[in-house]
Write a structure and sequence with these properties.
- This protein starts with a strand and ends with a helix.
- It is built from nine helices and six strands.
- Strands 3-2-1-4-5-6 form a six-stranded parallel beta sheet.
- It has two domains: 142 residues, Rossmann fold (3-Layer(aba) Sandwich), CATH 3.40.50.1000; 67 residues, Orthogonal Bundle (DNA polymerase, domain 1), CATH 1.10.150.
- It is of the alpha/beta class.
- The structure holds 6-O-phosphono-beta-D-glucopyranose and magnesium ion.
């Protein structure tokens, strides 16, 4: 176990709920219903792919400029919520785990679809832990394509089979498994059954515990 690559929204920081609120607001404004199930499908997808899902659900065809306006609108609602977010929205044990992994010389990467990733890492004061940040500003393919995690492993100088990926999204678990990574799902086992291990959150984890999970599974 030489490296860990973390998804951001819903794994390290409790921002998945804000994406949900903002996408639901946009979908409803466009006359499209938006359920928890829809939200589950959108987790991990890029902004473009998420809008495409909503437009497809509502059978709405739109011009490129309309799509730009809607993505901008969703993002400004999302950022309003993020800007009001207290620093402690970083999820429990996240900082402790990152610190502990660093002490054991485990490389740490971010593998997120978000174009707001750096802003969020800064807001909750965890940027300093990351040796590589791969986010929506550098990727060209949305999860479940493994690109984001493969770029992460490459940037960290590790092979995929010595690297653990942490993901709360079905699309992200699929991306990590396709890339050949040991995958820890964070959330519901029923949703993330393709992961090697599923945990409700990061709370029980430290270097020793992770090494045990990695070698025993
Ligand atoms: C992912 C989230 O991390 O980033 C998605 O799971 C979100 O819900 C996607 O749509 C893109 O984020 P952003 O911040 O670039 O709009
Ligand atoms: Mg996520």
């Amino acid at each position: 176990m030489k490296a860990c690559i973390f998804d951001l929204d819903g794994v390290l920081v409790d921002t998945a709920k804000y994406h949900f609120v903002a996408w639901k607001r946009l979908a409803n404004d466009l006359g499209v219903s938006f359920t928890e199930h829809d939200n589950e499908q959108l987790k991990g997808l890029s902004r473009d792919a998420s809008l495409a899902y909503i437009l497809n659900k509502g059978k709405i065809s739109a011009s490129a400029s309309e799509k730009e306006v809607w993505k901008e609108q969703k993002n400004s609602w999302y950022l309003e919520l993020v800007n009001a977010m207290p620093e402690d929205e970083v999820l429990p044990n996240c900082k402790e785990l990152l610190h502990n992994l660093k002490q054991h010389n485990v490389k740490i990467g971010l593998g997120s679809a978000s174009k707001n990733a750096k802003l969020i890492l800064d807001r909750v004061n965890i940027t300093k832990y990351f040796d590589a940040i791969i986010d929506g500003t550098v990727t060209s393919k949305s999860k479940p394509d493994p690109e984001v995690f493969l770029l992460g492993a490459q940037a960290l100088g590790t092979h995929t089979n010595e690297c653990i990926v942490f993901e709360d999204a079905l699309s992200g678990v699929k991306a990590a498994k396709t890339g050949g990574f040991f995958t820890v799902g964070i959330g519901e086992p029923a949703v993330l059954s393709e992961a090697d291990v599923v945990l409700p959150n990061l709370m029980t984890l430290n270097y020793e515990e992770l090494k045990k999970i990695f070698t025993e599974n």
